[in-house]
Write a structure and sequence with these properties.
Helix 9 (203-211) runs antiparallel to helix 10 (218-228). This protein has 2 domains: 2-168, 3-Layer(aba) Sandwich (Rossmann fold); 173-308, N-(1-d-carboxylethyl)-l-norvaline Dehydrogenase, domain 2 (Orthogonal Bundle). It is an alpha/beta fold. Strands 3-2-1-4-5-6-7-8 form an 8-stranded mixed β-sheet, sandwiched between helices. It has helices spanning 16-26, 38-41, 55-61, 72-79, 103-115, 128-133, 145-151, 170-198, 203-211, 218-228, 240-256, 261-275, 285-288, 290-295, 304-308, and strands spanning 7-10, 31-34, 50-52, 64-67, 94-97, 120-126, 137-142, 159-166. The chain is 49% helix and 13% strand. Helix 2 (38-41) links the parallel strand 2 (31-34) and strand 3 (50-52). The chain starts with 6 loop residues before the first strand and ends with a helix.
């Protein structure tokens, strides 16, 4: 019986580490954990109640495996082969895909899992490492609702807000829409801040005004004060991330026949930043170089589908 209550976390980086920590400190579920990087595994080597195990071994023991990895490619690697998850899956195993990925790729992975009798749900995250450590993460979930309800107890240690949104891929689609709106709001805030500077006002004052008025946002309450105005330029996210996410979101909107004019403009701006060689630079630097990026000319604009697919 105990074996059926074991949970697994694959990916112990920025988001996976706090997920694992929550299971250690705030649940009675035995934990199995894995990361391909030894430095990410190291903090868990001496933790009581934690077994470090590769994905195939984990699949034999766990009721649920959470993939907290960068993309679908890492999940695909873990699923395949005689030592992979699908070849070794126990009868009760359920997979939660917590990446921010293209739902098209996620559905391909889910079909592979279904052929082995393993339910697969997608679960887009919002709240960051701090939200996880506080047990307040938001999850946007797609897939079989009965499976979700049956496994909801395994989400409780690190989540507060759970939204089951429909068929498989719905969770990631909502997360991508969320990110398209989020990054569009950031660029609008950057534009307003530059206008303030040109008119001889302080951006810090703009932020203070917005935060007690109706134009407040995550960016005025966190991003500008903590990553930009203090000179740290440390949002702990690469420009690659919004470029990828907004590109996919715009493509999905097009395919659905939905308007995405503002998303298109955000993606075009991010395209210019990438063309300037900023793809691996910190997200906050979009504000530092805002005017220079805006003036840049793209030689040839590629579609979001081609660039992010």
């Amino acid at each position: 019986m105990a074996k059926k209550r074991v949970v697994g976390v694959i990916g112990l980086g920025r988001m996976g580490n706090p997920v694992a920590q929550r299971f250690i400190k705030h649940s009675d579920f035995p934990l199995m954990a894995w990361d391909v990087l030894p430095e990410c595994r190291a903090p868990f080597e001496r933790e009581k109640g934690v077994t470090l195990a590769e994905p195939g071994e984990m699949a034999r023991e766990c009721a649920v495996i959470f993939f907290v990895v960068p993309s679908s490619a890492e999940i695909a690697d873990c699923l395949k082969g005689k030592n992979g998850v699908l070849a070794n899956a126990g009868r009760s195993l359920v997979i939660y895909d917590m990446t921010t990925s293209d739902p098209v790729e996620t559905r391909k992975l889910a079909r592979r899992s279904a052929r082995k009798g393993v339910p697969y749900l997608d679960a887009g995250m919002s709240g960051g490492p701090g939200g996880i450590l506080a047990g307040k993460l938001t999850l946007m979930i797609g897939g079989d609702e009965k499976v979700f309800r049956r496994t909801k107890k395994y989400l409780a240690p690190f989540t507060e807000n759970l939204f089951h949104l429909g068929k498989l891929g719905s969770g990631q689609a909502m997360k991508l829409i969320h990110n398209m709106v989020l990054h569009t709001m950031f660029l609008a805030t950057c534009e307003g801040a530059r206008a303030c500077e040109r008119m001889g006002m302080k951006v810090a004052d703009m932020v203070d005004v917005f935060n007690v008025s109706t134009a407040f946002s995550y960016h005025t309450r966190h991003r500008f004060p903590n990553n930009i105005l203090n000179g740290s330029w440390n949002a702990q996210a690469r420009i690659y991330n919004p470029w990828k996410d907004v590109g996919i979101a715009v493509r999905l909107a097009r395919e659905a026949g939905a308007p995405a004019a503002f998303g298109e403009q955000t993606f075009a701006f991010l395209e210019k930043a990438v063309a300037r060689g900023m793809i691996e630079e910190d997200y906050s630097l979009l504000y530092r170089d805002f005017e220079e990026i805006g003036k840049a000319q793209l030689k040839k604009r590629r579609s979001a589908a081609k660039k992010t697919g």
